[in-house]
Every structure is written in C-alpha cells, then in structure tokens.
Amino acid sequence: MSYISDSEPSNFEDAFGLQVWKDAMMEKYQSIIKNDVWDIVPGPKKKSVVTSKWIYKIKHAADGSIDKLKARFVARGFSQKEGIDYTETFAPEARYSTIRSIISLASTMGWKLHQMDVKTTFLSGVVEEEVYMEQPEGFVINDRETHVCKSKKALYRLKQAPRARYSRIDSYLTRLRFSKTVADDNLYYKVVDGRPLILVLYVDDLFLTGDEDMIVKCKGELAREFEMKDLGLMHYFLGLEVWQGPDETFLWA
Q: CB neighbours (10 Å) of residue 197?
C-alpha cells in the first residue's frame, strides 16, 4: 500500500485532511451502523453523556510494511460514572505465557497455526446499562446535531465493553462445545473423535491450532456469527514474528 504519511494522526482534524484516513473512518462507521450499535435519540435531561473520539492505528505486516490503516470510534470511558453508566467491568485476558506455550505445543505436534481478526469485537457485546454517547465527529446526522447515541452494543473503551465482548464470544464458543482451561479463561479446546482443536482469544485477535479439518469448520462457524477476517497461517502475533515450515516453527520477538 502507498500512503501519504506513515505517521498516525493525533486528532480528527489531521485525519480528516487525508483521504485514506477518511476512508478508514467511513469503513468503521459503516460497520457500526451495520451492527446496529446505537439509536440516535434526543439528549437525555437527567443522564450524563459519555464523550467520544476517533483514534488511528497503522497495522504493519511481519516485514514491517504497512498492512492496513484502522480508525476506531471510541468512548472516553473515564467520563462514565460508576453505578450509573456501568457496574461490572472485569474481563480476563490471555496470558502471554499461554500464547507462547500453545505455539510451542503446535510446533512439537506438527500442527499449523491459523489466525483470525475479529473486525467488530467490542460491537458484539450487549450493553445492559443505559448509556448515552456523543455522535462521532464527521458523521453527525443533519438536523439532529443535538441528538446523541443511545448504546445498544459495547463500543471500544466503554468501561463495560471488555466484559460484554468476552461474555458474548465466550457464550458462542460454549455453544460450539468448546471447554475453557482452568489455567486461562481465554484458552479453549475440544476433542472430537480423537481430533483436537485449540483456540486462543486475545481481544480482537484469535488463533487456532490442531486438526486441520476442524480448524476450517470452526473458521466458518466463527465467520457466520461475527464479522471476521481470515488471516490464514499465522505470520505475526502480538509482536511475535512466526515462520511455519513443513516440520518446524520459528519465533522472533
């Protein structure tokens, strides 16, 4: 890809001046609308309105080249009030030691590592509280400039977003007959007719290893439930560069 600048914009004004970032924001906004994340309603009289902002991230490929520009519309969670805008917030995260251990196990067993990107991870969790947010800059609806977004699903950086997201995905994986390990709540596994399948979840990334036919089937099931991108064999994950040969796997940190 060729972009005007390799630097990430620090604010909306800088991003809006570049078409590539405008396109990235439009892609995210369309995803939000497609997933029915909020209703546009008049501003509440006796409820606080959570402030919001756009943030921008350049994703790099394993060779250091630019892979994708990502724009996210996020809530300024610090403006939420505990007990009013949110209650429980905890959600477990996969341990780094778990990730390395499963990659090591896959190498030992001769299994391939497959990676998927969940495009709308936080949008998949349902918000139980009554939460209002500002409309996104650049996408304020004409004639409803004073209206706000009443959240139906969890957006990035809402205090309850990680918990809502985790509960949603955990529930679906349970329906697929995955079990969680005692050691890590983001490490899932199942065995069918002696064939193993392991899934490791990390925020908006996940990877699978084990039986190849089961991996293909699971990818299809996940893609039907969530908006996901199949990244194929793992090449780069959380700062680890991964090279998978016919009989061995190499990691570079």
A: 23
pLDDT digits (tens, 9 = 90+) for 41-57: 998 887 888 888 999 99
CA distance 19 to 37: 25
Phi, psi of 235 (to 5 degrees): -120, -30
In 3D space, the residue among 45, 51, 58 whose CA is nearest the CA of residue 136 turns out to be 51
Q: Largest Cα–Cα distance of the chain, in whole Å?
A: 64
How do residues 152-197 score in pLDDT, each as one tens digit?
887 766 766 677 778 888 889 999 999 999 889 899 999 999 999 9
Taking the C-alpha atoms of residue 196 and residue 226, their distance in angstroms, rounded to an integer, is: 23
225 alpha carbon, distance to own chain's centre: 14
* Helix, strand counts (H, E) of the chain: 5, 15
Are the CB atoms for 50 and 76 separated by under 8 Å?
A: yes
Which two tokens mark 124? 């998949």
